Structure formats: structure tokens, C-alpha cells
């Protein structure tokens, strides 16, 4: 039945005008069917263009079982729910219930909306106007989902005031509990046949099960993890113990507001909360600003930082004692007491920096800080999770393999002897793309590196007719390179941070010949088919900074076990990150483009062959003019997106 579905005369070809049968897609679908039937574990790398979404959706809907699909982001959830799943469901005449479930911050909280409207005088008029709009919308909406609100931008400063977090949610004590949009969404998910979540919510649910024996997502018989390459990092985040200035400042602010509204005579509590806020600011100033994660163990050896931490600990203890005196007099203050209790315990754990098995780090900006300890491996807790959730497990992504091997990904999650499948992209990279590693690349350590690289690439960027995406490995490099391009090019030069991600992508696509310089989130999850993106430049191999405390802790553990951290950790992670970036270039069978990798280590170091062997098979050159000629050559293919 499944193979027939994907055939030339199958239900997909009949129902979907855009569907084209692909052998690799059918192969993946058959493997998914077998995994579901035997409740096994399948790991699939499906190259760009394979059609992996359909390859797992059809077997999932045909199975008749409860299915949870987890993907990397809310945007991908919406794509599944609004585009892919309805098309497949209609083609298969699937009549089951499908629900998309997001974290509580994605739903309106009526309690917090009312609370902040009552304090409107302290907010900017634009924020107050949006809060008023939300109050009107709250009486009209059935879902309460942010994505369903057309009158207030998702980027409005009103949303954090009108949504709740795990910390400040009042739960069943909330006066709006019966009409709570989060509760309704979770109830629908418990009753649905197909539930679409994201990885963050997936792990948040597992935490909830462990801590409170409750659940957001009903036990499923089929677990499908899409964009699985992001899973180990997100798992590590949820297995971490962390404390942030936002959490501490928020609880202090809410205590002050509650005292003003409900217990105005208990001014000592207000003073205690103000002392907590002051101690957070003091630690903020003491930590300074870090470009990346910094060593928390080393920071605690600084007497000034240790003194600021002690003051924070004392302020938390005072707040805890004062809140204990007013228990049962205010739901909001009871919630604050629970949060302060948890923060005290976490801060105590974060000072026990000699406990083995963790990496201790902090990160600070001029406005906030986070302190955390992260486990060096998530294999054991993830295996415990899989054992508790007896189901068929399917892990898939376009970027899981390193040099055609899936061992690194499987080791990260503790997957023992899973079925594995490597499916190359059906795109014809030998004709659609060319890789260029230019000669005479400037040293990245040179003070004028950015200007030299911009000058080197200038002839290419001046001649290509389409758009160019420049992916950088750090914010500082991004800004330096963007400034250099702006002085040289007549084309529009867009820079990450100048507008929202969606706005930048829209401007880039509409311009047709723009240059977009970006980092971090633009390395994955963006889809720009057609001539709007005909050149991709990557400034450097995306190795994790060598001074990263988590990398150093994991490297020490690797060496303790007799391994080589560079080959076992740094190279695999950099390869997968590079593959994600490269995957932005060719998105359809009619795309054509050039890839410029500006790192001589690809040809000068032995490990360069491992990176190159992990990329799609495309012709290579070191001559920029040859790359220009390739792109300007008459293209027999249509450049319109599929």
C-alpha cells in the first residue's frame, strides 16, 4: 500500500499536482512502515529534496496509531500543520484529529493580561494600546494562540505581559483556569490522533512527567523526530540547571506589584524584593559582558563575583522568609514563594562546581545573565526517556551524517544498534552547483581581514545577477564584513539584526540582487528557492570556540576515556553545522548556484577531506573566475521554484 501511494499512479500523484515520485522517498517511507510495525528505532539522513516530510507522514497517517511529530521550531510546526499535513490527509482521506501544540508562551494568559492592564500607567502608550487590543481579541478568539492574532504583531512588547511562563503560571489556583487557552490546547492534544509539537515542548513535557507525574502530550505509539540534528543540544538545555537575571528580576517585580495591590501595609516584603532586584543588578555589573559562554568555575574564584553571589543568596533567603509570613494570603505571592524556593536551590547547586559530569558556564550581556551547569552527555537521560515511552522512534534530518556515517548522532543520544538509512539528495549537484575555495584568502587574524575578503569577492558579487547570502560564524565577523561590503557594493546590503528575520528574508527575496550578511539562526531553517539566492558565502568552518567551557569539559571527559576530542567532538559538530549552512543554496531541482567556502583549512589540513566528503557531490575550483563563469553560463533549466 505505501509503495503504491508514492507511485506514478498513486494517491499522492493523483491528488497533488506538485508531487513527483522519487525512489529515495519511497525507500524512506518503506523503512518508516517497518519501524512502526516492529516498534523499532530508525535514523534517516534524507538529503535536501528527498521529500522526507511526506515519507514519514503517509506511513504515520496510514498506521492508525497515536502519533507525535516533533520538529525544531514553531515555524516548522505551522508548516506541517497548515500545509503538509492537510495535503496528505486529504489525499489519504484521513479523518483523524490533528492538533498543533506549542509552549504556554504562545497562548494568551487572561490573568496576566488583566494584571498588566491594571498597571497600564507604567507602560509605553504603544504597549498599552496593544494590551487593549488583546483584551478585545481575548473575547473573540477560540484558540488564544498568538499566531491567530491579526491585530497585534508577534513582536509587540505587549505579548510578554499577556502570556505566562512555567514560573509565573498560577495553575489551578488561577481565577481564569476554567477558560485557560493553554489548558484547552493541552486537552485537545491529549485527545488527538496526530500531535505536532516542537523539541522544546517535547522535553518540557518530559520534565513535567518527571517532576509532577503529569503530562501535556498523551503517550504515543509512534514518535517522529524531524530536524533531529538539533535534538542533542536542546536535550542538553533541558537537562541543565540554570538561573537567569530575567527570572530573578521578574519575581522581584511581581512581588513589589502584588504588595502594592494586595498587601500595602507589608512594606518590609517590598523592601526585601527591592533588595533582591538590587543584588541581581550588582551581580550583572560584576559579571560584565561575555561574547560567548564563559567559565563559571573560574568566575567564582574572583572574590568580587563570589561576594556578589553571596549577596544574591542572602537576598533570596530574606525574600523567602518574608514571603513565608504571608503564605495563603495571595495566590500571586504563594507562586512567588515557590519560585524563590526553587531559585535558592538552583543557586546552591550552581556553586557546587566540583560535581563531576557537568560543564559550568555563564553568559552575560549588558542587560542580562544566565548561569548554568549542563550535563556532558545526554545519552543516559534520553535512553531513560525512550524506555519510558515505548513506541516506534523515527529520527530524521537532512544533516545527521559525518563522512557518510551516523555514529556521532547515535552516540549523542545513546541509540544502540538502530536501523540506519542514508539517502542522498535527488538534486543534480554536479550540474546545479559549484564549490569554490578561493586562492589567496586573507588570514582571519589579520586586522583588515574583512576588507581584504570583501575586495577578493567583489568581482564575483558585482557580476552575479541573483542574490548572495553570507553566513558568518560570529556576530563581530558579521558586522565587520557587512561594513566592508557596504563600502564596495551598489547592491542592497542587509544585515541580521537590522530588522526581524522574516522582514529581512522578505526584503532579500523581493530585491532579487541583495547581499544578506547573517549568522546563527540563518544557518538553518530558511528556504529561498530560485534566483533570489544564487551565491552562498561561508566565512569560516563553524568550529565551536576552543575556550567554550562546555567544549572544554566534554573534551576533558573524552580524553579521560582515551578519545581524541578534536576528532570525536569538534569535527563532527562542525561538519553538521557546515552541512546545514550549505543546505541553504540548492532548494529545488531548478536552482543553480555557487558555494564559496572562505577557509583554506579545507585544502591545507588533513581533516579538510572529511568536511568535503560530507558535502553534496559538486564540482570544485579554486578559481573565482571559473565560479563566475559557471553561474553566468546559459542555464537550460527554469529558475522558477517548484
- The side-by-side strand order for the widest beta sheet comes to 3-4-2-5-10-1-11
Number of helices: 27
**Which strand-content bin applies to the residues?**
5-15%
Shape: globular
Radius of gyration (Å): 26 Å
Q: Structural class per helix/strand content? A: alpha/beta
Can you tell me the residue ranges where pLDDT is under 50 for at least 5 consecutive residues?
634-642
Distance N terminus to C terminus? 27 Å
What's the overall average pLDDT, rounded? 92
* Largest beta-sheet details: 7 strands, parallel
How many strands?
18
Q: What percentage of residues falls in helices of 4 or more residues?
A: 40-55%
Description:
The chain is an alpha/beta fold. The protein is built from 27 helices and 18 strands. Strand 14, helix 22 and strand 15 form a beta-alpha-beta unit.
Task: Give the helix/strand layout.
Blueprint: H1 2-5, H2 11-15, H3 23-38, E1 41-46, H4 52-63, E2 67-71, H5 74-92, E3 98-100, H6 110-117, H7 125-138, H8 159-162, H9 181-191, E4 194-198, H10 199-212, E5 222-225, H11 231-238, E6 241-244, H12 245-262, H13 267-287, E7 294-295, H14 296-299, H15 303-324, H16 331-350, E8 358-364, E9 369-375, H17 379-388, E10 392-397, H18 407-413, E11 419-423, H19 429-432, E12 433-436, H20 449-463, E13 468-472, H21 475-488, E14 493-495, H22 501-511, E15 515-519, E16 535-538, H23 549-560, H24 565-582, E17 593-597, H25 601-604, H26 608-613, E18 620-621, H27 624-632
Parallel strand pairs: 1-10, 1-11, 2-4, 2-5, 3-4, 5-10, 12-17, 12-18, 13-15, 13-16, 14-15, 16-17
Antiparallel strand pairs: 6-9, 7-8, 8-9
Helix pairs in contact: 3-4, 4-5, 6-7, 10-11, 12-13, 12-16, 13-15, 15-16, 20-21, 23-24
